[in-house]
Amino acid sequence: MKTEDAKEIIACLPKGRTVYPYHRDRYAVQLLEFVVNDEVSISELRSSDFGKLLCRPAVKNVVASCGSGNLSRDDLAKAWPLDVEVYRLSLTRWGPECEKDWDRWGYQTSRPGQNLVLQLNFSNAHNEAYGKIVKSKDNSPFAFYGHPVVQRDWHTLAWARLDIDLDGGSALIEELQSDWVRYSRTAAEYAQKVLTGANGEEAQKDIVFDGQTMDAKAVCAYYRDVVAPHAKLWDEAMLSAAIWFLVSELGIGQIYLHDHETGCKLKNVTFSQPPRSLYTKLPQRFCFQKIKQGPDFLFEKPDRRLRKLMKSEDLAFWRLVI
After folding, report:
1. Is 31 exposed, middle or buried (0-12, 13-18, 19+ CB in 10 A)?
2. Which value, to the nearest 10 degrees, does the dihedral of the CA atoms of residues 162, 270, 144, 159 take?
3. In this structure, what is the dihedral angle of CA atoms 36, 28, 21, 108, given to the nearest 10 degrees?
4. Contact 187, 213 (CB under 8 A)
5. Within 13 Å, how many C-alpha atoms sit on residue 190's CB side?
6. What CA–CA distance (Å, rounded) separates 97 from 229?
7. Helix ranges, 275-314 (H)
8. What is the CA radius of gyration of the chain?
9. Which single residue of 32, 65, 151, 268 has CA 20 to 30 Å from 206?
10. Cβ neighbour number for residue 156 with a 10 Å cutoff
11. What sign for the dihedral angle of Cα 180, 264, 300, 101?
């Protein structure tokens, strides 16, 4: 998307903290809230593209209590468990300021221009626990600052890069990613080896990870007790937040996501490919449909790589229509 469009979206939206509460299967409730205007027949819903959502635990009990055979938005509002993670959302931009400086491999975008980035940030509850093992407020050993993460104060669990066409009412989710889960897990695994001497050296009580010295036991406990619950949720929560943002804040009705193979070919990703499940199983759970055509804006000025893909039988995207 154009740099000025990304800037305009950020400028028009509320500044400060945007809270996004999430619990397991919240995405199912949220999607149903989008497609249920006031009230809809459960049998009609069950036979639609969103029928599989009725089987999710967060929705199942609500459906069972609907004696009328219809499901309303008021019914869905009851689907809140006691255990909820509270995240904070923020926005930034990713990509070159000038389109002539665009590099497909370097920026991992499908076309020249920028992406809008939706960041899913930890709450203060996490930050307090994290601050007990990492004293530096400037650099985190669990974040890579060459990626679109919050640089100070907040800590980014995950992000979604978005290419948006406001005029056409469509968007492409370019990427879903979390460095924090991967790096903190690696640190905990290393800490366990250091504590037991399993790394071939004498057992130690501290580790040095990404240049920072940390208590090994505290790192293990931090990942086990604090990060692990987020590790089970982050992909689901991030995609859910991206859909909520696109639909509720921008009025986008068609949302696309890369198929794993097409995305890697289009963005020239040959090494360190993203987890396949993010671009296969995850969109299936969210009721995306696999199709042969991507968003129209992507094909307006196709370059050589895209033209080659357009001729291929393997071209595929995931699409969600709200």
Report:
1. buried
2. 20
3. -110
4. no
5. 15
6. 37
7. 281-285, 304-310
8. 21
9. 151
10. 25
11. positive
What's the CA gap between 2 and 75, in Å, rounded? 41
Contact present, 40 and 50 (Cβ < 8 Å): no
Query: Could you tell me the two tokens for 73?
Result: 């938005």
> Does the CA dihedral 210-211-212-218 come out positive or negative?
positive
- Residue 135: what pLDDT? 82
Model confidence, pTM = 0.94
For residue 107, the Cα-to-chain-centroid distance in whole angstroms is 18
Give the chain's count of helices (H) and strands (E).
14, 12
Tell me, what amino acid is at 130? Y
Residue 148 token pair: 């679109």
> Can you give the pLDDT at residue 103?
81
pLDDT per residue as tens digits for the range 83-118: 899 999 999 999 988 888 888 778 889 999 999 999
The residue ranges of the chain whose pLDDT is under 70 are 16
Measured distance CA(153)–CA(124) in Å, rounded: 10
Instruction: Indicate where the chain has its CATH 3.40.630 domain(s).
Output: 3-24+83-179+229-321
Backbone angles phi, psi at 193, to 5 degrees: -65, -40
DSSP state of 143: -
pLDDT of residue 106: 80
From residue 14, how far is each of 122, 207, 249, 268 by CA, in Å?
A: 19, 41, 10, 36
Fold of 3-24+83-179+229-321: Aminopeptidase (3.40.630)
Question: Cα–Cα distance between 299 and 163 in angstroms, integer?
Answer: 13
d(CA 149, CA 138): 13
Eight-class DSSP state of 154: S
Single-letter code of the amino acid located at 182 = R
